[in-house]
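haha ok so turns out i had the wrong file open the whole time. this is the CORRECT one, sorry everyone. sequence first:
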Amino acid sequence: MTAQDLADACEELGHPIPRNVIANWESGRRLTLTVPELLVLARAVDTPPAALVFPLDGSTSVDCLPHESRDPWTAFSWFTGEDLDFGDAAVFREYAGVEHRLRTGHHDAWQLQFSGAREDWPHGAEAKFDRLVKAIRSELVPIRHRMRELGLTPPPLPSHLAFLDTDHKDDQMKEGTP
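then structure:
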């Protein structure tokens, strides 16, 4: 990708970055960039923003702070918060892990949203879906409740599983909250 290609891609994303600015970054004449610039550049080259800051490219050391170097993975993990177990991020990380395990362990049932109306599901699909719903109710819904108790908004459930949040709405109605 040329500097002009990258500039064009950034403009298409709604945050123009002129070709000469990109060339100045490449040559080292410009050493800073804003967070919005980082984000749009990452989207334009289809990579996570953290990978632009701390590339996992085989280097043995990267500068994290002035006078502080780390190996690339430690720097990347620090930047993304993966090396920390702090507050809200910990519960989101727990949620993501459980969701991923359920999604992959019940892949066929998770994909039923794409197979049309329930009456069109193949034989045995409803039983698979019921097992998925039972697993989500026992494992994912409690984490969603805990997130709400902490004042957080859980990630949206796929449309075919959104009914599981009715339990939360029923609880709110009992407590008198909308």
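The radius of gyration is 22 Å.
again sry for the mixup
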